[in-house]
Write a structure and sequence with these properties.
The complex is a heterodimer of chains A (143) and B (255). Helix content of chain A is 70%, strand content 0%. Chain A starts with 8 loop residues before the first helix and ends with a helix. Chain B has two domains: 118 residues, Ubiquitin-like (UB roll), CATH 3.10.20; 128 residues, Orthogonal Bundle (Fumarate Reductase Iron-sulfur Protein, Chain B, domain 2), CATH 1.10.1060. Helices cover 28% and strands 15% of the residues of chain B. The longest helix of chain B is centred in the last third of the chain and has 13 residues. Classes of the chains: A mainly alpha (143), B alpha/beta (255). At the A-B interface, helix 1, helix 2 and helix 4 of A face helix 8 and helix 9 of B. The complex binds iron/sulfur cluster and FE2/S2 (inorganic) cluster. Iron/sulfur cluster (SF4) binds next to helix 5 and helix 6 of chain B. The site of FE2/S2 (inorganic) cluster (FES) has 12 residues of chain B, from loops.
Chain lengths: 143, 255
């Protein structure tokens, strides 16, 4: 970002406070995407421990049985569920599905693409992620 | 924060009978000799109908005529007066101070546009990307050859694109877009919405050539449907809708 271009930059891109729940969903989608990518790399590293034999494998797996390990896995569940459910909404939107119908706009120009179907989709993704995370936590800490 | 000035006791074009006043903070920056921007503050009286542009013009008239601001029509038609008003891109002539519901109004140049000076920004890139998507009807038979050969269109066909034809090229959508915030090469919501405006026009035959133009790495694929463009558009264009329809063609959801 050069001063010349006066770009809002990463701060402006990531600021989720100004443009409604759709911008929050955009931000969460990016964040969970990066989080899942990091998990994917860590997961490959984790499973590669099998090369160290049964002992190495068990040693590494024990890390996920700690409180920190459980919280980390709960976060992965949250990211995974949100990214999947919101991803379906975004994919349909990207195909032009559920984004409204063109019409002569009337003041105050509520944009048809930012409609209740997409809002319901976003809130559902957040809710389902929260439920799945709580279930995961109950299972992991309930052992 | 160099100075706070008040015009309450001076003669103003806004009636001084107004009991209300607002603190107007104007971002000042001249890229030719300033290292960074700074704010100047002014107390400006306002009425229920006073717009942010009128308040800025009051400041220019009474305190500092050097404040750089671009405007022309004062009625949300020319697209000149876009700026960040309390952190959001809006038209200064279309934003009433009373509707901001704040005692402080902060005006800054639009994000994602190079600054000329103070509140005035360069539009070259927006005009370039607009031109790139071929914003005109493309046909094999460009000239009307006989009297009866008008390019007829039904009201239903008109409805398909008329809202996108409302665009005044103000750039607010490009300023709100999260992709434009970091990607200097992204074609942007304004140009993409205009690509759809022509693709959806029943008289146009340029769909394939326009889809080819936007089907590149800094083209339509950089849109992530955050929808901020549609939320700030002052003319009801809803660029996000047009962009998703356009992508629907490329993904095979539409034909
Ligand atoms: S689409 Fe709307 S916000 Fe964007 S340039 Fe056109 S009128 Fe302005
Ligand atoms: S002055 Fe023309 S749009 Fe504001």
């Amino acid at each position: 970002m050069t001063k010349d271009e006066h770009k809002a930059g990463i701060g402006g891109m990531a600021n989720p406070t100004r443009y409604g729940i759709e911008r929050v969903a955009y931000w969460l989608m990016r964040l969970t995407g990066l989080g899942l990518l990091a998990y994917f790399v860590a997961h490959i590293y984790e499973t590669s421990n099998i090369l160290r034999g049964q002992v190495g494998w068990d040693e590494f797996l024990a890390l996920t049985q700690t409180t920190e390990g459980h919280i980390f896995l709960a976060l992965v569940i949250a990211m995974c569920v949100f990214h999947t459910v919101n991803g379906v909404r975004v994919m349909l939107g990207h195909g032009g599905i559920g984004v409204g119908t063109p019409a002569r706009p009337d003041y105050p120009y509520d944009p048809a693409s930012q409609n209740y179907r997409h809002k319901i989709g976003i809130y559902s993704a957040i809710l389902l992620a929260a439920i799945a995370t709580m279930y995961g936590l109950a299972v992991m800490f309930g052992e | 924060m160099a100075q706070v000035s008040s015009i309450a006791n001076e003669q103003t074009s806004t009636p001084v009978s107004s009991s209300k006043s607002v603190m107007l903070r104007i971002s000042r920056y001249n890229p030719e000799h300033d290292d960074s921007s700074k704010f100047m503050e002014f107390n400006v009286p306002y009425e229920k109908w006073t717009t942010v542009l009128e308040a800025i013009l009051e400041v220019k008239k009474h305190f500092d005529h050097s404040v750089a601001v671009r405007y022309s029509c004062r009625q949300a038609t020319c697209g000149s007066c876009g700026m960040m008003i309390n952190g959001k891109p809006r038209l200064a002539c279309f934003t009433k101070i009373s509707e901001l519901d704040s005692d402080v109004v902060t005006v800054e140049p639009m994000n994602n546009f190079p600054i000329i000076r103070d509140l005035a920004v360069k539009f070259e890139r927006l005009f370039d990307t607009h031109q790139k998507i071929k914003p005109y009807l493309i046909r094999d038979d460009t000239e009307l050859e006989t009297d009866e050969r008008e390019f007829l269109q039904s009201p239903k066909e008109l409805e398909q694109y008329i809202q996108f034809a409302n665009c005044i090229k103000c750039g607010l959508c490009n300023s709100a877009c999260p992709t434009m915030a970091t990607d200097s090469s992204f074609v942007g919501p304004q140009a993409l919405a205009q690509a759809y405006r022509y693709v959806a026009d029943s008289r146009d035959k340029g769909k394939d050539s326009r889809l080819k133009i936007i089907d590149e790495s800094h083209g339509i694929w950089r849109c992530h449907f955050a929808g901020s463009c549609s939320q700030v558009c002052p003319k009801g264009v809803d660029p996000a809708m047009g962009i998703q329809f356009l992508r629907g063609y490329l993904l095979g959801f539409r034909s």
